[in-house]
Amino acid sequence: MPAFKRTAVTLLAAAAVTGTTLATATTASAADYRCKTSSSATYDDPSYDGPDSDNWSFDVKLCAKRSGGYIYTTATVYWDGPYSSGTNNHFTFNKARFHLQTKKSARGTDPVVKYANYTGLEGALENSSSSGNGSYMTGTIKTKATAASYLADGYIQLDWSGDGKDYKSPILFSASPTV
After folding, report:
1. Which residues pair with 37 in a beta bridge?
2. Do the Cβ atoms of 90 and 124 come closer than 8 Å?
3. 126 with 93: CB under 8 angstroms?
4. Which residue ranges of the chain lie beneath pLDDT 70?
5. Residue 32 DSSP one-character state
6. What is the pTM of this model?
7. Helices and strands counted in the chain (H then E)
């Protein structure tokens, strides 16, 4: 092989290896989400007093990450509801939502920087499996970062059908670790 071609092949191979190394390094250095999962108490459907189960319990995984000058926050809600929720479900809630917040870590109360209400939770709850279980993942909030630390926080609000009231008090969960 002539010297020119050999040099060109060597440079192309080196560039390919360097490109792979850089791409791998970028992927490897991308911030992973830092998450915390916490559980709620059990909640009783106030409009039902029959013999069947009507209790709901929730776990929420709140996650935050810092990447490329931004903070990303998201949440996943898991539940164990009544075993019959998959068959008689569309009249359980008038409304249900997950209120996701991006907060700046501070002394005292952490101020909310950005938030979103995810009302798709109602449909997910009312379409649980026949054993009453399910999960729902919110969208992701993207916020421009400063040097401060940030975290994900949030809560569930339920408006039960048939009780004549609006949203109940928020069901609170533990915030994510800071990023």
Report:
1. 61
2. no
3. yes
4. 1-31, 84-89
5. P
6. 0.79
7. 2, 9
Per-residue pLDDT, 177: 97
Helix (H, G, I), strand (E, B), or coil: what is residue 118? strand
For residues 139 and 158, state if they share a domain: yes
- Length in residues, the chain: 179
Question: Please, which residues have CB within 8 angstroms of residue 95's CB and are 6 or more apart in sequence?
Answer: 119, 122, 157, 158, 159, 167
Specify which residues 156 forms β-bridges with.
98, 171
The per-residue DSSP string of 126-158 comes to HT--TTSEEEEE---EEEE--SS-EEEEEEEEE
Pair (115, 138) in one structural domain: yes
Contacts for 38 with CB less than 8 Å, ≥ 6 apart: 59, 60, 62, 173, 174
pLDDT 10s digits, 99-145: 999 999 999 999 999 999 999 999 999 888 888 899 999 999 999 99
Q: How many domains does the chain have?
A: 2
Does the residue 119 lie in any domain? yes
What gap in Å lies between CA 99 and CA 95, rounded to an integer?
13
